[in-house]
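Below is how a single chain appears once it has passed through the pipeline. First comes the sequence as given, then the structure the pipeline wrote out for it. We keep one example in the README because the format questions we get most often are answered faster by looking than by reading.
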Amino acid sequence: HIFQPTPLERELRAAPGLADLREGQGEQLRSLLAQYEREIEAVNREWASARDERDREVEGGALYAGDTPKFIPAILDAQRTRGEIEERHRQRLASILTAEQLDRLRAERSHEDRKQDLGLKDEYADK
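Resulting structure:
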């Protein structure tokens, strides 16, 4: 689940497609997405590396050696950092879009997320 798009990532990807963007908003949104992707990719790699180390230690039996495994702080740090990145970009998204645009984006994304959760294809989603 580390590399799956978060709700914020889905909003960032959908935002440039809003029909009523004002001049400059589209470019700001594309720039924000590019920055988010760079930052989140790095922290996701760190998190996945720590998870892989955990898996190796569990498989090798080293997990129960008595010391705190070094993967625990690494996983917690990655999760904390990812949360900070998400919050910073969520605030920046809110500063680029109007309140009405943000509400509409979230409502549209919520509908899309529900369809995805149910495994519905577009042609069946509204039936």
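The first helix runs from residue 7 to 14.

See the next section for the split statistics.
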